[in-house]
Predict the structure.
Amino acid sequence: MHTPATMVMGIVFAPLGLVLVLTASITPQWREGHARLGVTGPGSPPRSKARAGGGPGTLAGVETLLLLRSDGLWESCLQVVHSELKQCWPVTGAYRRDPRLRLAQGLVLSSLFLCGTGIVLASVGVRCWSDVPLRGVAALGGFLVALAGLLSLTALGVYTHNLGRLGMDNPAEGPGSSGGGGAPRYPHLTLRPAGSLYFGWLGSCIQVLGGGALLLSFKRPWCPATQACPELPACPACRSCPELSSSPETEVYEMSC
């Protein structure tokens, strides 16, 4: 049979959105910031400091390193820019205990579960191998996919709105602390959104679009009645009417009423 375009759109967009949201959730680039760290060289005064605005280099015996700090939902990383030195660790301290981060984690996990369940239901409902799609099952799958997209959008909104304040309530245990979690100390950062957030926003919007398209498949197609087929008011099978089947302007579906 001819599969409705809304079903095709939904069954394509839903897995794509799931992959993007999953990629965003497991990567540690929800926020990032640069910091300059002065490393005292041999024979230089122990209290000398690096110039704040200069690039990586040496000034008065102090080597300036440009560090890139990035945080995700479950992992944080610190990398020396223009080098392969990188260290990652599970989120720790005040950042891990922040209730806004825990809320975002819970919403993202719920979104992934609902989207996966919705894709399974939509696959069963579309039934490309059968003549009659299960429209109610496909629409239920679309509802779950759309709800998953809204949950992940909420998580992204909460994180973005509080991006600069997450884990900063207790400065002694904030992102620059090394107490107990193996996270190195580094100077104050100006944090900004990173790449994983954009993947998440894109994937969530695609999920909402895919779920909405599957929801539209709940409506049964309308088959026009003609004088040649007066016995088909409920249209149990439109293509049983030769006049309708041969008309190039009529979309033909086989459906159960």
In short: The helical segments are 5-26, 93-97, 99-126, 135-161, 195-216, 242-246. Confidence is low (pLDDT under 50) at residues 43-59, 171-184, 230-245, 252-257.
